[in-house]
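Hi team, as promised in this morning's meeting, here are the two structures we talked about. I've kept the exact order from the run log so nobody has to guess. The first one is mostly here for context; it's the second one we should focus on when we meet again. Sequence first, then the predicted structure tokens.
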Amino acid sequence: SSWHRFDKTVEQQVVKDYQKNNHGTTSVTINSTSYEINFNDMQQMNTSTKYKRNVRRREQKKNVVKVIQYL
């Protein structure tokens, strides 16, 4: 597997929520599927199936933008 970047709208929401509370959670919808992202565990969970996958946070050198990605 390789890491995939969230689309821009989801990424902006996730980064904003992470900056507010980097030990909390946020909820997002990707392709009509709802996920909960737990920043403390750095995992996203499909709220229907409860399947979890890792997410990571990366600094972008050019704009020092925080990027959230999923595996």
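And here is the second protein, the one for discussion:
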Amino acid sequence: VSFYFLRIKESKMLFSVKDDEKLEVFTIYVKRTAELHGITACRSVYEDAINKLNADGSREMCIRYAELER
């Protein structure tokens, strides 16, 4: 239940965050998701980040996601 609540809050929060700060927000979101629900729960967060961030942010998240999957 808390994971879904966190996802709803994340979606609403991204509307109020400047584009240049979204990477940092997703980084915190990934970390918190890992702490609460484990690494496997982070996959959907990474996929959302890749889709919602600009090109540079998406590239950074792709690299982090690939490192996670090693």
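Starting points for discussion:
The longest helix spans residues 22-37.
The two ends are 29 Å apart (CA to CA).
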